[in-house]
Give the backbone structure.
Amino acid sequence: MTRKYPQFRIGNGYDIHRLVIGRKLIIGGVYLQHPDNLGLDGHSDADVLTHAIMDALLGALSLGDIGKYFPPSDEEWKNADSLFLLSKIIELIRKQGWEVNNIDSVIVAERPKIKPYVEMMKKNIAHTLQISESSIGIKATTNERLGPEGREEGISCHSVVLLEKK
Ligand SMILES: [Zn+2]
């Protein structure tokens, strides 16, 4: 008797972007208001949560990182909507026969308070990936004023994903 075991792959993603004046603060496709009007700098919209999730998805299948698919040298991705980039990455994952089991992320930001925006972020990610919001964890923490996040030089994000073979 042969038993079919589920096949799983885990992926880990990390990203950080610098906080600057004159940029929008977009995280998880949500436009956040920073008390000092700071936003994240980057080639695309610098959506640190969405980038960490994309790298986790790619890492789970040993497909490299987002720089390989959307190089900063390519003008096409200038100020790109990262949720759109995420929709391209999930296509790639599904083409290889894999499905998202769950995603968990932690955003490290001193300000603004992330919690009021978490449900909206979950909705955006769930909609883009076409998965249930209950499969997506988004947490936020300050860095206790330590390090670059604590000094408000930037905002970072860590994500893990679990993929399941279909
Ligand atoms: Zn990024």
